[in-house]
Amino acid sequence: MRQSKLLIKTKNKNYSIFVGKNITNNISKILKEEKIKFNKCLIIVDKKVPKSSIYKIIRKIKSKLKKIIFFNSSEKNKNINSVNKILDLLFKENFSRDDCIISIGGGITGDVVGFAASIFKRGIKFINFPTTLLSQVDSSVGGKTGVNNRYGKNLIGSFNQPDLVLSEINFLKSLPKRELICGYAEILKHAIIADKKKFLFLEKNKNKILSLNGDVIQKTIIDSCTIKKKVIEKDEKEKNLRKVLNFGHTFAHSFEASLRYSKKLNHGEAVLMGIKCAVKFSKKINHIPENDAKRIINHIDSLKIKKLNDFFNLKHLETLIKFIKIDKKNKSNKINLILLKKIGKPDINSNYNVNTVKKFLYNELN
After folding, report:
1. For 116, which of 77, 130, 222, 364 is 20 to 30 Å away at the CA?
2. Which residues, including other chains, have CB under 8 Å from residue 28's CB and lie 6 or more apart?
3. How far apart are CA 130 and CA 140, in angstroms?
4. Domain count, the chain
């Protein structure tokens, strides 16, 4: 199985994404081919990543100075304090904008490190090694970085395209099935908003993907990244089209924030619940054909994750609405929802009164 390369072209920066097995053996060669040079590098490593894999990467990176920080990645640690710790070390070691900061970990680590890279002296080189399925198909592509605060998820951040993304499939072998399903949520989202053929592929190959079948998982990652690539190349900073990537996320982010980013519910599970809500809302307003709605909901149910009522009931309604109202996509007193007209045809500019959304959630929670 050969490694795949995907070139992302935005107005601000072009960069490559490499996907495959044993990419870590070719780091020096890839850096040379991509013309990425630096004298110093700060490496931020998610504590969950196997140590053997980390040191293999570090040995392959040629740099006069390597500093390593082990980061305890969690939504609660995805905050401005974690960013400040990274910045302090960069200043202490007198890093310049020609040096490099490297993230090895999942989406939380990549978001925190990418944000720090974007604001250190207005931008330092940034290389991302996403180690989870979720980060390989979603957060490592497109340049969104950021941290949470008490008002909600990812409300402090920037658009900062990386200089290079290296998605090593071997990292995925250490993940429990729950984490693989977490990543599968974004794969499913991409398929639903982009192309019914991609959705049919997932219906047929879901089990192969979750069991990390070599050829299938590599194709799936590349396909998912390609869908996102086409969106961000047209709308890098979410002025309009890129909002489609938030399908299911308005609900999902409110679920996560209402639970204070508890480990009881991870991001992918929240997204799957959010997709179900978006599909049901689409069906309620006669946006989506019955058969399409049923197929999506059945597909999500086949993953056997917990349901909305396992976490929330009517007493949580006001809290959920509070977080939905401060979603980044909202530009008025109305709620912007990404809905679905049919599989492969989203609607990105649907705005609804708060009471309409509240009534919908009331019925879902009752």
Report:
1. 222
2. 60, 61, 62
3. 7
4. 2
Residue 330 CA: distances (Å) to CA of 216, 228, 240: 37, 22, 12
pLDDT at 153: 80
pLDDT at 314: 96
Which sign does the torsion angle of CA 305, 242, 255, 225 carry? Answer: positive
Are 168 and 181 in a shared domain? no
Structure tokens at 78: 């995805």
- Which DSSP helix (H) or strand (E) runs through 111? helix 107-119
* Host domain of residue 68: 4-172
Question: Structure tokens of 307?
Answer: 């349901």
What is the rounded CA–CA span in Å between residue 247 and residue 347? 9
Predicted TM-score (pTM) of the model is 0.91
pLDDT of residue 59: 82
Q: Which of 157, 223, 165 is nearest to 194 (CA)?
A: 223
User: Could you give the 3-state DSSP secondary structure of residue 353?
Assistant: coil
What is residue 142's predicted lDDT score, i.e. its pLDDT?
87
Residue 242: count of CB within 10 angstroms of its CB:
20
Exposure string of 351-364, with b = 16+ CB inside 10 Å and e = fewer, is ebeeeebbebbeeb
**Structural contact between residues 58 and 66, judged by C-beta atoms closer than 8 angstroms:** yes
Amino acid at 76: K
**Closest by alpha carbon to 41, among 57, 52, 53?**
57
User: What is the domain-level CATH number for residue 325?
Assistant: 1.20.1090.10
Largest CA distance in the chain: 61
189 near 42, Cβ under 8 Å? no
In the chain, which stretches have pLDDT less than 70?
1, 328, 330
Residues 73 and 196 grouped into a single domain: no
**What tokens appear for 91 in the block?**
């200043």
Which SS3 state, helix, strand or coil, does residue 93 take?
A: coil
Phi, psi of 188 (to 5 degrees): -65, -45
Position 24 scores a pLDDT of 85
Residues 147-199: pLDDT tens digits? 998 887 888 999 999 999 999 999 999 899 999 999 999 999 999 999 899 99
